[in-house]
Structures are given as C-alpha cells and as structure tokens.
Design a protein that fits this description.
Layout: E1 4-8, H1 15-24, E2 28-33, H2 40-48, E3 52-55, H3 61-68, E4 73-76, H4 83-88, H5 90-110, E5 115-121, H6 146-160, E6 167-173, E7 175-177, H7 188-197, E8 201-205, E9 210-215, H8 216-228, H9 231-234, E10 237-241, E11 247-249, H10 250-261, E12 265-269, H11 283-289, H12 297-309
Parallel strand pairs: 1-2, 1-4, 2-3, 4-5, 5-6, 6-10, 7-9, 8-12
Antiparallel strand pairs: 9-11
Helix pairs in contact: 1-8, 3-5, 5-6, 7-10, 7-12, 10-12
Domain NAD-dependent epimerase/dehydratase: 5-242
Protein name: NAD(P)-dependent oxidoreductase
Length: 325
C-alpha cells in the first residue's frame, strides 16, 4: 500500500504543483484547502488526476481530523502567506498561522501520522548584518515581519517542543517564482516581469537588497526529496530550499527582465517599509539530500513571458492573482 500524504493548502500556488509531483511519485495525495482564492477549477483538476480533496479551514478541528485520518505524512503549506497579508489582518494570520498550525500538529500526532513537513521561509533571516556572506541554517534568525515571526515560532515548536511521535522537518523556502495552476503576480519575479512586459512603469525600492529565489516546481521537488529520504536523516532538521547561485538583488532582476522583454520603465525609489536583506547558502540541502534546483530566475522570467504572450492568464492584473487585492 502506497504512502498517503496530506498537503494543506493543496490547491495553492505551491500546493497544486506539489500534489502533481507527489502523485507522479506513486503516492496517494489528499489536499486540504479552503479555496480562499476561488480555486475551484484547480481543485477539480486535481481531483480528476486522482487527488482526494477535503475542502475546509485548517482552523476547524473536525476538518483537520478528517484530513489526517489514515495519513502517513503531512506537508503543511496552508497559511496566510506573506508580509502584506499578515500585516493587514494580524488576528486572522495568528489564528491561521499559529493556532491552525498547532492544531494541525496535534491532530496529525493523534492520528498516528509519522512525517510532518513544515513550510517555512528564508524571510526568517530578516536583515543580516553582512548580507554579502551567505547565511546557513545555523545562522541568526532576525525576523522583521509578523509573517516571519510566526514561522520562527512554529519552527521552534516543531524542533524543540513536544510534538509527540511526529518526525518534523522544516523547509525554509526562498522567494518563489514561476508559472503554476494557481498563478500569483504579487511575487517579485512574476510581478516585475508582468509589469515590464505590459510596458508599465515599475517602481522598485531596495534595489541593492539581496534575496534568494526558487522556482515553484523546484519547491515541490524539495518536499518530495525530503519524503523520499529516510526519516532519521531529516527529522528535526532545517533545510534552506534553493540554490546558492540564485541569490539576486532587485536591480539584477530588473536587468534580466529588461534583457528579455526590452520595454517598460523602471524607477528606483526609497522606502523603509521592507528592510529585509539576506543572502542564503543552500549547501546543506545539496550535501545532505543531493537536492539541486532545475530552474534559474532567467528561466522563470522566460516562462512567465511565454505565458503572458500566449494569453494564458487572461488579465494578468486581475485581483485573483494576488494574495490580497
């Protein structure tokens, strides 16, 4: 009998490609999703491919309990994602990102689930004292947003707290980009590419600040790699997810997009509302798990441009492509 994996947020930006990745690996996949962004068509497509759908809210104990029944592993992606969404409604984000996660951990353990993979973020590194020196998983965590603070708190619970018999692994994802069924245009690479493709004026702040980036499907491959690895190697471990050569400044992104689209206007402005500046090392995930990304940011930019040229997204400025409208 094949392994059953529950993916919370399974119809989301990372979740849908991940469900497809896990299906391709021969696993049974159950997606738990409230379909907050109207992804009924994505959910239906996943079901047609063989994914079992549990539609509901991770804050609901009965929904969680139904989702984890008989499961071997949980991949916990569901969250109010990103600094702007969390800042707009802190109470909701605490309910979902903290209480919902605590409930998911408790219910998974009570159901006898063994593996628990928690989607965290490289934003946990915040503003580094020296962003030119790539930070490892052992580096200081300095979150500068509510979203990152919540992720740090849940990491600590999983790594140091009482989680029963669960075998947790924390994955700190780089900033995600690329084309996926539940497309997002409120992420840096995708947004910048769309705006310049549309010949709009793009305002960029913090153009010299460093961030790492990873393609949405590579993020899913990283989760599968952890599940394919013996538990004793990954339990209570943290892995940065990305590639060491894929740290970029916003100025670098703009330059590459301009090279590929050749239109639009960029204005560099000064703002102090997002001080994150971090360059990240991904040596551990390569060394321990043999994981390497398949896509680079220039590849992803080309992919988004091709989708825009083909009209794949309808109106790419539609509010459905943002986590907050």
């Amino acid at each position: 009998m094949s392994e059953t994996v529950v993916v919370t947020g399974g119809a989301g930006y990372i979740g849908a490609p991940l469900c497809e990745e896990l299906l391709a690996s021969g696993r049974k996949v159950r997606a738990l999703d409230v379909l907050l962004h109207g992804q009924d068509d994505i959910a239906a497509d996943l079901q047609a491919k063989g994914v079992e759908l549990v539609q509901g809210d991770i804050r609901d104990h009965d929904v969680r309990r139904r989702a984890v029944q008989g499961a071997d592993a949980v991949v916990h992606l569901a969250a109010i994602v990103g600094d702007p969404a969390c800042a707009r409604d802190p109470e909701l984000s605490n309910d979902v990102n903290l209480e919902g996660t605590r409930g998911m951990i408790a219910d998974a353990d009570a159901a006898g689930v063994s593996r628990f993979i928690f989607a965290s973020t490289c934003s946990n590194y915040g503003r580094m004292a020296d962003p030119t020196e790539p930070i490892t998983e052992e580096g200081e965590l300095a979150p500068v947003s509510l979203y990152a603070e919540q992720k740090v708190g849940m990491e600590r619970l999983l790594l140091d707290g009482d989680t029963g018999d669960l075998q947790p692994t924390c994955l700190r994802f780089s900033t995600i980009y690329g084309v996926a069924p539940r497309m997002r245009f409120d992420l840096t690479v995708n947004e910048f590419t769309r705006d310049l493709w549309a010949d709009r004026e793009l305002e960029v702040f913090g153009e010299q600040f460093w961030r790492p980036y990873v393609h949405v499907r590579d993020a899913g491959r990283a989760v599968r790699t952890v599940l394919d690895t013996a538990p004793e190697i990954v339990t209570r471990e943290v892995f940065n997810v990305g590639r060491s050569g894929e740290n970029y400044r916003k100025a670098d992104l703009v330059q590459e997009i301009d090279r590929q689209v050749g239109r639009g206007k960029v204005t560099f402005v000064t703002k102090n509302e997002d001080p994150r500046d971090y360059k990240v090392s991904f040596d551990k995930i390569k060394r321990v798990l043999g994981f390497e990304t398949t896509m680079t940011v220039p590849d992803g930019i080309g992919e988004v441009i091709a989708g825009l040229d083909a009209g794949a997204f309808g109106d790419p400025f539609d509010g459905k492509y943002r986590n907050i409208s």
